[in-house]
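=== RUN LOG ===
request id: a7f3
mode: sequence -> structure
chains: 1
length: 310
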Amino acid sequence: MILIVSPNLAVDQTVYVDHLVAGQIHRSRSTRREPGGKGVNVARVLTTLGIPCLLTGFVGGPQGEFISQRLKEERISFTPCWIQNESRTCYLLVDEERLQQTVVNEPGPEISADESASLVSLFRKELGSVKWLIFTGTLPPGMRSGFYAELISMAQKAGKRALLDCSGVALRPATQARPFMLKINHVEAASLIETPVGNAEQAVRAAGALQAEFSAMVMITLGAAGAVLASDDHRYLFVPPAIQARNTVGSGDAALSGVVAALTQGLPIEELGKLAMAAGAANALHGGGHCTKNEIDQLKTQVQCRQMDL
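=== RESULT ===
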């Protein structure tokens, strides 16, 4: 079982339009309203891959009721941590003509100290029944920046392995807790090591630096160019197949799902990277963690892998 800790859950409102022009009135082609947030995307893909997982995070008000009910309908195991304030909404405008996405994320509800402590208690309760943990997403307002770091330390003391994919104020403290794996995009990687990360060669060097300082395994994603994965003394570049991406929101989360799915199955590093890239590409066909196992399986055969040791 995999426990996914994602405090800042949301309702995602996606609107598809023919051609988005700032300052103009548009008529949507279609809309989609569903539970969202990085943890939801991860849980969707893991469920698609048949990997048992449990998601937890804050929910509140009618929005929280909607999230909880819809996750149940999707057969995603979810243990909510209820709060007084309303769960946030995130807005996604998809330009169908140019295949571009414009995202507006609310910061999230204010979390009290008691509510934060409730999530820690829930975490302690579930910790004994899981082997792998995923910490993902931003922290809502009111939460201390070291929240993830504290939970990662607790997990390590319990002999569990933690994977981290977060941003904002929580990133540096959480990486300093030395999770088993750090999944990060090239912009976040550059901010941690204070060195530009704009291509595969720079990502290889950055992955080595991050490995030495923060984590045994590091994946740096480079968008459509793929990802660099550092494990032990080896560096690999994985390049996904060329596809017509309709909605790339959640592709990084899908890639993380592929990583943890491969880890739980004991797959070699080359297969791990291919599964991660295939899951990310499959997500880009739909967005929001939506894809099929058949799509992932087919795309996996087209992922390129190249050793990049320097």
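=== NOTES ===
The chain has a mean pLDDT of 95.
The chain has one domain: 2-20+30-307.
=== END ===
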